[in-house]
Amino acid sequence: MMYPSPTLPRRRATYSLLGVFLMALYAGASHAAETVTLSLAPEQRVCESFLGFGNEWDANGYLSYPLTEAQHAQEAARVRWMRPGIMRVMVLTRWLYDNGTYTWDSPGMQQLYRSLDLLQELGVTVFLTDWGGEKDWTRGPGIKSVEDPVYAEAMGTYLEYLVRTKGYTCIRYFICTNEPNWEVNDWARWKQGLLNVEAAIKQRGLNTQITLAGSDTSQAAEDEPWHRLAVDELQDVLGVYDIHRYASVDEVRSGTMEAYWRKQRDYAIAHDPKAASKPFLVGEAGMWTQSGNHAVSDAIDSYTYGVDMADYAVQAVSAGWTGVSAWMLSDNGHRNFAWGLWRNQEQGMTLRPWFYPWSLLCRYVRPGAAVYRVNAPENMRMLLAVSEGDWSLVCVNRGAAREVAVQAPEGLSRPVQHFRYVDGAQGSNEAGLPEPEERITLPAGGTLPISCAAESVSIFTTLN
C-alpha cells in the first residue's frame, strides 16, 4: 500500500441445522439443480502445497494508537480464531538504527515483538517486509538510499537478531522494500540494494531459514515490467514471486482477475526453470478506491466488499497463486487508515462485514493443502482444498439465487460444516466470530445440495 506523505451491529443468527438446509433444497425442487462434480484429477490441481490466506499486520499505527491490554487481547483472540496461514509484517529501520547504533527495545520494536510472539505461537508463516531506505519516515538516520551498503548491513543485523536472539522461526521470507516501483522508482538501484541484502543474509548464514521474495511491485500492469525484470534478472535470488494488486470492481465481478494472475505466473514459469517449485504471493490484495484517497477504501464498510474479496481470492488461487495477503488486518496498524477487518480503537474495534468470509478463508483453507479448480456454473467461482483427508469447498455466487448439487469424490464424505455469508443472515457468536449455519453428514460418495443466495459466499468444510 502506498503510504500517503458506521459501526457493524453485532448479530446472532440461530438455525435448526438440517431444517433450514432441507427447506432450501425442497424450495428449489421445482427446477433442476445444476450439478457440479468435484474432481481430484491432476489437471484440476492448481497448487500442491498452499501457503495460506492472511493479512498485512503492521506496528506503525500502534505507536499513535496506544491500545489497552484488553484491546490487545481482543485482537489476539481474533487472530487466534482466524488461524491465518501467512502474515505480511512491516519493519522500519528507524525503529532500531541510528548512525551505527542499534536499539532493540524501542516502542516500534516492542510492538513488532508483540505481533511476532503471537504469530510464532500460532505457527504462522511471516513475510517480514522492510518498508524502505528512501523516504525520511522509513529509513534510519545514517542510511542514504536503498543501494547504500549500510542499509543492507542494518537489515542483516536485525534479521540475525530476530532469528537467532529472539528465536522467531516464523520469519521464513523477507521482502526488501515495500512496493519498490513507487518507493525507489529505479530498477537498477533497487536491484543493487536487493543483491546487497542477499549478501548480508548469506554472510550470516541466515539463508537456510530466510528466503527472499519480490519484486513486491504494486498495481502491476498487464505486462508489468518490474515483475518481468524480477523473473528475468533475479530468478537466482528470489525464492518467491510477489505482486500487489488493488482490483477494480468490474474485473473481479466479471471473473477476469483469474486471467490476469495466470498471465503473471505463466511468464515466470516460461522464463524461470525453477518457478514451478516457487511460491507465488499476492502480497497485498484489496479493492481499488475511486476516491483517490489511498488511506480509505470506498467500500470497506459494505457487505459486498466481503463478496468481492472472497471472489478475488478464489480467482487468484485458481490461477496458481499459493498465498494471498489482504490489506489489512486492523485499522490500528496505520494511523487514519480504513482498510482493516476491524476498525481502530477510537471506533471501538468493531468488526467489518468482510471479516466473516475472509476469516473463514484463513481458518479453513489450510497451509499445506492441495488446491483444485472446480468447473463451476456460470457466474459462480469455486475452489476445493484437500488436506490429509479433510476438505473445504469455497463457493462464490455472483449471479441470481440458484440450487447446485455438488458431487463429492469417493473418500471425501464425512460430517460437513456450512458457513454462509449472506447479507443480514450470517451466523456469529457474541464475539462476532462466525458460526456454522448447519452441520451435514454426507453418505459415501454423497451429493451436497447447496442453496446459493444471490451475491453470497458459502464455505463447506470437514475441518473442526
Please render the helix and strand layout as text.
Blueprint: H1 18-27, E1 34-37, E2 45-47, E3 52-56, H2 69-82, E4 86-91, E5 97-98, E6 101-102, H3 107-122, E7 125-130, H4 149-165, E8 171-176, H5 180-183, H6 187-203, E9 211-218, H7 225-234, E10 240-247, H8 249-253, H9 257-271, E11 280-287, H10 303-318, E12 323-326, H11 355-364, E13 370-373, E14 380-387, E15 390-397, E16 402-407, E17 415-421, E18 438-441, E19 447-452, E20 456-461
Parallel strand pairs: 1-16, 3-4, 3-12, 4-7, 7-8, 8-9, 9-10, 10-11, 11-12
Antiparallel strand pairs: 2-13, 5-6, 13-14, 14-15, 15-20, 16-19, 17-18, 17-20
Helix pairs in contact: 4-6, 7-9, 9-10, 10-11
Molecular structure report:
The chain is of the alpha/beta class. The protein has helices spanning 18-27, 69-82, 107-122, 149-165, 180-183, 187-203, 225-234, 249-253, 257-271, 303-318, 355-364; strands at residues 34-37, 45-47, 52-56, 86-91, 97-98, 101-102, 125-130, 171-176, 211-218, 240-247, 280-287, 323-326, 370-373, 380-387, 390-397, 402-407, 415-421, 438-441, 447-452, 456-461. It folds into two domains: 18-44 and 371-461, Immunoglobulin-like (Sandwich); 50-367, Alpha-Beta Barrel (TIM Barrel). The protein has eleven helices and 20 strands. Strands 3-4-7-8-9-10-11-12 form an eight-stranded parallel β-barrel, surrounded by seven helices.
